[in-house]
From TrEMBL:
Cleaved signal peptide residues: 1-16
Subcellular location(s) per record: Cytoplasm
Role according to the record: Cysteine protease that plays a key role in autophagy by mediating both proteolytic activation and delipidation of ATG8 family proteins.
GO BP term, example: aggrephagy
Protein name, UniProt field: Cysteine protease
MF GO annotations: cysteine-type endopeptidase activity; protein-phosphatidylethanolamide deconjugating activity
Catalytic activity: [protein]-C-terminal L-amino acid-glycyl-phosphatidylethanolamide + H2O = [protein]-C-terminal L-amino acid-glycine + a 1,2-diacyl-sn-glycero-3-phosphoethanolamine
Domain Peptidase C54 catalytic: 54-336
Lineage of producing organism: Eukaryota, Metazoa, Ecdysozoa, Arthropoda, Hexapoda
Amino acid sequence: MFFAVVKVLTVRTVIMDSLFTQNVSDEAEDIPQTDEPVWILGRKYNALKELDVIRRDIRSKLWFTYRKGFIPIGGCSSTFTSDKGWGCMLRCGQMVLAQALITLHLGKDWQWMPETKNSTYLKILSRFEDKRAAAFSIHQIALMGASEGKEVGQWFGPNTIAQVLKKLVVYDEWSSITIHVALDNTLIINDILRQCKVEGGMTAEIDGETPLKAPSQWKPLLLLIPLRLGLSEINPIYINGLKTSFKFTQSMGVIGGKPNLALYFIGCVGDEVIYLDPHTTQKSGSIEEKMNEEEIEMDTTYHCKSASRIPITGMDPSVALCFFCATEKEFKSLCKSMQEELILPEKQPLFELCRERLTQWSPADVASEAIAAASFVDFEHVERQYDTSDEDFELLG
Ligand SMILES: *[C@@H]1O[C@H](CO)[C@@H](O)[C@H](O)[C@H]1NC(C)=O
Ligand SMILES: *[C@@H]1O[C@H](CO)[C@@H](O)[C@H](O)[C@H]1NC(C)=O
């Protein structure tokens, strides 16, 4: 511990005394030297004792940034050979989805190394390459944006990227992930159960005439909860809940940003959030089997050497909380944690959790049901207007 303190002081002195260097800023700015716990996607670390472990964990996440020099999005007549200036929210969406795929196929403890050639890892990464044929490429996401009223090159907000990813995951049969986007600040448990439980078809064993149904199977769930936590800045009432959400083992972080730029928040420490920043423009290229120097080098451009952080109060109030539940058990445990840690202790929780959409209404009382239904429609209408959140994110030069 003492060593760490001395090191920080030395670093500070170097900054003051001499020229700014990249190495020094990496050391001083990614993770603060504090005894407060550092949380990275549901994992708790000690910054004083585990700095290297924290950095290795962060470096293992797939980091997607602006790229240039790819095949034009939307055909040869298009000029979109780079997403610089408009693609940052799309890249954040890629990061969340990639993290879910890594958790599903490689496990939460999996770590990337520069020499990693694991074929499952390469298969995941290939889905995000900058080409039309890749299931989750910038091309696919930008073109699918049209179904949400976004032309190629237009900004997405957290809700738009959530809706687009939901449509795209259907095409990845290998992962068979399903995305649930919770609307109106409400998580309806039975809606999610219905979406995730798929009948497993018939089993081979036939008992008399009635075929036995296989136990229903669970589609791995990526749960996205778009929220607006204030008008122009985060309402302080939500800060504690936001921090708590990073502590759940199912956490896939938060898609959001600073005003006018999208960031992928992967954790928190004290009153600050830690993020991966897509605002670096790198050259596009492919990795294939990662055999030659060029491909090995390209792979390293998908891993960020050091994360950044900002105070929670500096976040844009439009966010989408992200969670991944590979099994039904994980989902149930997530609901329990949400109820106990995010909802019950808060005067004004981040969102509501209910079992069924209609439970608040009395089916016997037709009149009150009609009123409830009417107000539900109104409520939905109001919430939709929140989607102007997209306009808060503008083009970045
Ligand atoms: C930065 O770090 C690298 C490797 O750790 C080292 O070789 C290089 O000299 C450092 N640069 C500066 C300016 O300190
Ligand atoms: C890739 O990594 C996973 C998780 O560590 C492991 O189970 C799998 O066997 C590896 N695949 C190959 C081809 O090495």
